[in-house]
Design the sequence.
């Protein structure tokens, strides 16, 4: 019997370690995917910790609903190895990206096509075993999207960092056409957001990040201007240059990033928040109405958005972000480097 090797979470707050089990056989509509690449995401750090920082001493415990050992990893590209007898279209040998944000399929949000927001979800690498492994079982072939002619190292991360950025930019709506958008935070999601914004919008975006190297990478990637939000003059300079911004994506999601975002927002503007860094954000209540502001959160994106994004990428309309390949066995090292902020672009595990 084929063995499945995994870099498993065996205890919260502890390093991953290798576990080996028999490779599962897919049943019914299930599909077994042999993994080629799996991206390493910031949310993997939170999952390994077992909590999100909420600010002060408060933490959101996320250790429930997950049996250990557990396999992290939700940015998966691979090859269909076998399929259950009801898995129509799951041709063995097809190269596919995995849409990981799988819902219950029956609740109101799932029926509306927003499985990513399902409260009884089966998100791959979050609740269901994921991609820091040689294989993964996916419940239905509808979640498997052809990625050729892209590389698997580009296709996998499109399903999380790419999709998160794409969905956030779409949620800016018509405001994104009334001037440049501002992207705050240039990690994996932010850099993807920059590449996608260059395709979706007429004007090149403005970016903000506290890291000079990331600002440099963003300017090389087509940003119109790059600001350091930790510079006390940045807000004034940005207001002077733009008159305030109508459309902002906050890919950081911290007290400071939201203060900066709402501080440079024009009247009638909107901030879409995808970041999960944590902390507590407060605002003068009257400013919400006075500035007619909208603050909206998004969580990854829908299956339909994943298809749209892959179509754009496959048509060559999205420049790949820098990625670094590392062997699966170095999963913990990749997480450590991400935690230490030593990564520009995306780290992808090679299986
Ligand atoms: Zn992710
Ligand atoms: Zn559901």
Sequence:
């Amino acid at each position: 019997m084929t063995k499945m090797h995994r870099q498993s979470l065996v205890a919260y707050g502890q390093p991953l370690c290798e576990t080996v089990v028999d490779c599962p056989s897919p049943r019914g509509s299930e599909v077994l995917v042999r993994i080629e690449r799996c991206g390493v995401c910031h949310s993997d750090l939170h999952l390994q910790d077992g909590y999100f920082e909420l600010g002060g001493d408060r933490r959101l415990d996320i250790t429930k609903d997950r049996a250990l050992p557990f396999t992290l990893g939700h940015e998966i590209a691979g090859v269909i190895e076998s399929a259950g007898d009801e898995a129509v279209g799951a041709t063995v040998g097809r190269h596919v990206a995995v849409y990981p944000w799988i819902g219950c399929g029956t609740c109101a949000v799932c029926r509306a096509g927003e499985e990513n927001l399902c409260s009884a979800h089966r998100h791959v690498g979050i609740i269901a075993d994921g991609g820091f492994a040689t294989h993964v079982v996916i419940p239905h072939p509808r979640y498997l999207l052809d990625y050729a002619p892209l590389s698997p190292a580009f296709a996998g991360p499109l399903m999380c960092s790419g999709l998160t950025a794409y969905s956030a930019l779409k949620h800016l709506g018509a405001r994104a056409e009334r001037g440049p958008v501002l992207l705050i935070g240039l990690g994996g999601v932010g850099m993807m957001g920059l590449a996608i914004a260059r395709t979706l919008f007429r004007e090149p975006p403005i970016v903000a990040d506290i890291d000079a190297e990331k600002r440099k990478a963003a300017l090389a990637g087509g940003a119109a201007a790059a600001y350091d939000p930790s510079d006390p003059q940045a807000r004034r300079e940005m207001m002077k240059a733009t008159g305030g911004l109508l459309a902002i994506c906050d890919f950081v999601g911290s007290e400071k990033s939201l203060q900066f975002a709402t501080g440079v927002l024009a009247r009638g503007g909107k901030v879409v928040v995808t970041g999960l860094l944590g902390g507590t954000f407060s605002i003068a209540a009257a400013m919400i109405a006075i500035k007619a502001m909208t603050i909206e959160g998004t969580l990854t994106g829908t299956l339909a958005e994943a298809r749209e994004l892959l179509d754009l990428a496959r048509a060559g309309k999205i420049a790949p972000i820098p990625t670094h390949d590392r062997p699966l066995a170095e999963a913990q090292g990749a997480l450590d480097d991400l935690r230490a902020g030593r990564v520009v672009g995306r780290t992808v595990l090679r299986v």
About this structure: Residues 105 and 111 are 7 Å apart (CA to CA). The pocket of zinc ion (ligand 2) is lined by residues 103-104, 107, 109-110, 118, 120 (CB under 6 Å). The first strand starts at residue 3 and ends at 9. The chain is about 30% helix and 25% strand.
